[in-house]
Specification:
This is EF-hand domain-containing protein. InterPro entries: EF-hand-dom_pair (IPR011992), EF_Hand_1_Ca_BS (IPR018247), EF_hand_dom (IPR002048). Pfam families: EF-hand_5 (PF13202). This protein is an alpha+beta fold and about 160 residues long. The chain has a single domain, classed as EF-hand (Recoverin, domain 1, Orthogonal Bundle), CATH 1.10.238. About 35% of the residues lie in helices and about 25% in strands. The strands form two sheets. Strands 1-2-3 form a three-stranded antiparallel β-sheet. A hairpin with a 4-residue loop joins strand 2 and strand 3. Helix 2 crosses helix 3. The longest helix has 13 residues. The two termini are about 20 Å apart.
């Protein structure tokens, strides 16, 4: 598909209670030149996230960090300036790369039954040096190509 045959719109809504974010919502609409469109919706409340995170036997990100990672995943290139911060938050061991385990810490509340190795397929699409890890350049490609959105929408 030619690049000009597809346009997208992403709306972000942030609901706050005092100084605290209580919910984020993303509505994604992709338009094709032929008139077809695809709509996706993802909303995450602090209460729901924390409830799910408490039941998971794996490390998870605190809600405030989770939503900083979620934003570029959902908004793609529209949130280009947020990608380095999301990368830093996911790079738990400060190695300069994100491995499957670090990416999996983001996943449980979005796709509760996800298996970290299912993520490998997505990582391999942008992993130029085949080390099964993402550096910042590869992570940026994952976000810009919409692969991050596919992951958060459960299209594993």
């Amino acid at each position: 598909m030619a690049k000009n045959d597809y346009k997208a719109r992403v709306d972000e809504t942030i609901k706050m209670h005092g100084n605290r974010i209580d919910e984020v919502e993303y509505v994604y609409i992709g338009f094709r030149k032929n008139g077809e469109h695809e709509d996706y919706h993802r909303a995450v409340t602090r209460a729901d996230y924390e409830r799910v995170a408490a039941t998971i036997q794996k490390p998870t990100l605190p809600f405030d960090k989770f939503i900083k990672v979620l934003r570029p995943f959902m908004m793609g290139a529209f949130a280009h300036d947020d990608i380095p911060e999301a990368f830093r938050l996911l790079d738990a061991d400060h190695s300069g790369t994100i491995d499957i385990g670090e990416l999996a810490a983001f996943m449980p509340a979005i796709v509760p039954n996800s298996n970290p190795y299912i993520l490998l397929h997505h990582i391999q699409q942008v992993d130029k040096n085949n080390d099964f890890k993402l550096n910042l350049e590869e992570f940026t490609a994952l976000i810009h190509r919409g692969i991050g959105r596919d992951i958060t929408l459960g299209r594993l």
